[in-house]
Amino acid sequence: MKKSILSIVATYFFSICLSQKISKEQYIQTYKDFAIREMKRMGIPASITLAQGLLETESGNSDLVKRSNNHFGIKCKSSWTAEGVSHDDDAPGECFRSYKDAEGSYRDHSNYLRGSDRYAFLFQLDPRDYRGWAYGLKKAGYATNPRYPEILIKNIEDNNLQQYTLSAVNDVPIFNASRYKDDPAEEKEIKKIIKNTSPGEDKILITTVAEHKITINGSMAIFAAKGRSLLAIATENNINLEKLLEFNDRQNDGLLEKDQNIFLEKKSREGASDFYMVAQNESLYDVAQKNGIRLQSLLEYNNINEDDRIYTGTRLYLRPPAKTGNASAVKLSEPVAQQEKTAELKTHEVQPKEGLYTISKKYGITVQQLKEWNNLEGDDLKIGQQLIISK
Questions:
Q1: For the chain, which terminus, N or C, has the lower number of CB atoms within 10 Å?
Q2: Model pTM?
Q3: Of 342, 350, 336, which is closest to residue 379 (Cα–Cα)?
């Protein structure tokens, strides 16, 4: 709910900014919560994020930010398939990323830094070290202005932006860089920029729709939203519909009933790990899709049927049991003791600004326990997510 309120407030404020000039203080107060939340999500110091926003947008008054909601001067590059606007920068008519709102820009800024190898060294710094971050961004090639670090530092110190970093420093996530993957992209319209021959705004022509491709257990996939058509996904990716259904263990075409991974090629017969602990409300199909393993293989390894009911906490083999050193079949008939244990499972609903560290401290458990009990690979949490906090 708070996320929605922040977006509404920022959007309302942005509409006002289009007609009048705003101050640095107004910019900071409007977007500081986005910066704090992104620090907790991805680890970029809130002070650095706000200082960059102030500089890149001229405190929210630049022509680029008013036309595109681009707060960080991030250019399209070859990997960007969503909206863009033409803007004169280092060269005339360069393509800059465009977003539907400021929140999208702040989120993409975090993903951009975290997902690029050239910025990886920055995340080894203490998040309170804004000077190290400022000079590191310049060293990594974020900007061409030789005074870029000094300007960021001045923005931070003159406007006391360090207070926002300090407010979130205890919730900064710890990432395993080798396992990091960027957020699955939301469904977006690909737009092609066509410059006008007369003065005025650039025309934008909608051409198609696409999601970013990701790799799960060695197989190419996309993260598709609820309501997406499998036929549309097949068409957009030049795949025969029957093949797409086969890749995803489905019999019929239709609209997706929930957000999920959709594979664009055959899934592996074996998982990346030996076992998987079933999370709340997960089906066998969900487990297969989440781990990038063929459903039939999952059923064979565990000596179960597709319509068998599985319980929260059930350990499923993702590889042949013989390879794991344990060839016994999975027991799906929940014994009384297990029923009592399941009934006693305590859960916690994730609140705004909460991270794994905060939740673990609240219940006197470790972050590793939280991850194991809830089958979490990364550190990202969603508001409203239910976490098992006691077993």
A1: N
A2: 0.45
A3: 350
